[in-house]
Write the structure tokens for this entry.
Amino acid sequence: MCGDEAQAVSRRSILRGAAATAALAAGAALALPGSATAAPEFGYRRIPLSKISIQLYTLRDALQADTPGTLSALADIGYRQVELAGTYGRSAQEFRALLDKNHIRATSTHVGIDGDLNKTIADAKVLGNRYANVPFAQFSTIDQWKAFAGRLDAAAVAFAAAGIELGYHNHSHEFAPIGGVRPYDVLTANTDRRYVHLEIDLFWAVNAGVNPIELYEANFSRVMQYHVKDRTADGQMVDPGAGVINFPRIFAATYWNLREYIVEHDNPVNSLTTAKAGFDYLRDLRY
């Protein structure tokens, strides 16, 4: 894992305690009629298997212990796409070979943009990534967020030249106003929608009190990927379908332009159990 990726993963771990402080903001999605736990049947649409993926951060411990075996297990579950968060001590070429052996495509990846961008892009091409996302950024002033948006925009142009679409993955803090201005709005207003897409993490958006449907509508055409992880009413992260986020309602209102539905859990009890639960839930869901 490169320095930028390790730093991003480290920063993400800081946010694990954020659910407790944001639990009062249950989010409009929790107030939507029905519950994901009631039944996966909601309508007639289904998510194509080609759009179901998993963020490998969910399986980081298993991958560190046994990368070939874990990828094989994911293939057995049914995954044909994954999103990367590092390559677990292997080169891009070595990790690509393991993916190919298991007939898995790394369609997406989480990357940093403040290191050697040329190497990051070259590795992404070797790995076969179509999408890349900055997984975390946090600043204390709006001016710093604007400066970051400029760097994100410039990096996205470089990625686009290599045939890869760059986006941004949210947590909760981007929706907390600084001086009355939400950093997320700064990001969307100061990046070019032709180059910078959005990967909405539904758990963290709901945790921040944001209605995912309204967030999608406000950024229509930029939202290409969802991180699908569930939330209990008191703010605990759980496997998709085990909480109260109304995924069928969200998906029914926002399926246009969605390229990937990516299973994730930051701290699963058993990562392969979570991987199977998430895959089965999305495969069986009707919306």
Q: What stands out?
A: The first helix runs from residue 3 to 14.
